Amino acid sequence: MELWFTEKQTPNLGLSCKITGTLHTEQTEYQDLAVVDTVQYGRMLVLDGMVMTTEADEFVYHEMISHVALHTHPNPKRVLVVGGGDGGAIREILKHDSVETAVLAEIDRRVVEVSQQYLPSIAGSLTDPRVTLAIGDGVAHVREHQGAYDVILIDSTEPIGPAVGLFSREFYQDVYQALTPDGIMVAQSESPFVNQDVIQMIHRNLAGVFPLKYLYLASIPTYPSGLWSFTMASKKWDPLQVDFTGKKQFNTKYYNSGIHYGAFKLPQFAAELV
Q1: CA neighbours within 13 Å on the CB side: how many for 80?
Q2: What SS3 class is residue 7?
Q3: Rounded distance, CA 237 to CA 245, Å?
Q4: pLDDT value, residue 159
Q5: Domains plus CATH for the chain?
Q6: Strand 212-219 with 227-234, pairing
């Protein structure tokens, strides 16, 4: 008998993966949480039936939500991740020697704990002394820390349930206030194929808040359509003007200087969304 996990990514689209077993399931205070072992992608973290990350392709998402901003900012010292309880973004942030403090503001403690137990290759850096775990409402954390961060990464699920507030204009205004005068924000902004309304909403809500905003893309096989987007908003630094001369080279599987620039070269249909 074969066992399969299927995520219904839209009412008309699904992703099915053959699994060898279910490693963990529970209903947390906030959501249904599961870890399954897939044949194709290794261990997979699932929240409310949606794929959050897998061992095989997580590096694309975590490198692209982190390094584009951290290479754009010339000296990022204090970095906040809102959401991202699996710890992958934190792992990538800590590769930058300038980073002194990396704060993870995750509302669901169990996501962190289960990731540490079952996904150590992703969550292993959460015990680093530079990391602070701030378990609680990320929206409130941002509001209460004005001028505290050089870079803020919004590593959220899609805009349903606890994540709805992370896509509002009011939240982006609070992010602006939580950043230093030359700070940068990056948010995951869903698929340009199947979530066009989300991308448009994000860019509409950012309009007039930050002077610079950009959409950029990456290929992530287990996310809807396989083509994913991120949105950068910056007070000062332009990602298209980064000089990589003298920048430290460290181990990545997807991100490099060519990808940094190329990710902003949008196909016409995506460019028209913003």
Answers
A1: 30
A2: strand
A3: 16
A4: 63
A5: 3-54 (2.30.140.10), 58-271 (3.40.50.150)
A6: antiparallel
- Per-residue pLDDT reduced to its tens digit, 78-119: 999 999 999 999 999 999 999 999 999 999 999 999 999 999
Catalytic residue among 37, 86, 150, 155: 155
Query: How far does Cα 215 stand from its chain's mean position?
Result: 14
With pLDDT > 70 as the criterion, what percentage of the chain qualifies? 97
One-letter amino acid for residue 177 of the chain: Q
Q: What does pTM read for this prediction?
A: 0.96
Q: 108 an active-site residue?
A: no
Q: Which amino acid is at 32?
A: D
Phi, psi (degrees; rounded to nearest 5) at 21? 170, 165
- Of the chain, the end-to-end C-alpha distance in Å amounts to 47
CA 274/CA 257 separation, integer angstroms: 24
Spatial distance between the Cα atoms of 127 and 124, rounded to a whole number of angstroms: 7
Tell me, what's the pLDDT at 248? 81
Note the pLDDT tens digit of each residue in 61-83: 999 999 999 999 999 999 999 99
Interacting residues of 253 by C-beta distance below 8 A, sequence separation 6+: 59, 60, 63
The answer on pLDDT for 274 being more than 80 is yes
